[in-house]
Design goal:
Number of helices: 6
Number of strands: 4
CATH architecture of the largest domain: 3-Layer(aba) Sandwich
Order of helices and strands: EEHHEHHHEH
CATH class of the largest domain: Alpha Beta
Strand order of the largest sheet: 1-2
Shape: globular
CATH superfamily of the largest domain: P-loop containing nucleotide triphosphate hydrolases
Strand content: 5-15%
CATH topology of the largest domain: Rossmann fold
């Protein structure tokens, strides 16, 4: 096993695995080399099925999209954002999340301000769900009209 002690009853214990790799760049790279090809294949299968079925839009949630060059594999990028304070509060409310772990994760990411600049669309979640739903409807209406730009 690449990461001994991170499985329980044959299943990955995400908290243990995260604790092992979050502060170790080499271990994180090793994990990414294992996981990213599987995720890419799964994403490709999903998008191929969506295209075959005639779906007007297909949405994928890709962490580290810009950091991995993934923006070249999609037709449009939507960045979901909020204030740094609200982001921190929401993330720290998750199970097995600590301030130290969050800081390590954020250090690997492009700043939110840069993601917003690069995005085709931005959804600000700071003001409740009704404005978010309206923005998503607007984005979907625009997205069906966009030309393909994937490479």
């Amino acid at each position: 096993a690449a990461f001994p002690g991170t499985t329980v009853d044959g299943k990955v214990d995400r908290a243990r695995l995260s604790a092992l790799v979050v502060h170790d760049p080499a271990a994180m790279k090793q994990l990414e080399r294992i996981v990213h090809p599987m995720l890419g294949a799964s994403r490709k299968k999903f998008l191929d099925q969506a295209e075959r079925s005639g779906a007007p839009v297909a949405v994928v949630d890709v962490p580290l999209l810009y950091e991995t060059g993934g923006e070249n594999r999609v037709d449009a990028v939507v960045v979901v954002t909020t204030s740094p304070e609200v982001q921190r509060e929401r993330i720290l409310a998750r199970d097995n999340m600590t301030g130290e772990k969050l800081d390590a994760i954020l250090a690997r990411q492009l700043p939110d301000s840069e993601k917003r600049k690069r995005a085709d669309f931005v959804v600000d979640t700071s003001h409740g769900l009704d404005p978010v739903r309206a923005r998503i409807r607007d984005i979907l209406e625009q997205a069906v009209k966009l030309p393909q730009r994937r490479s």
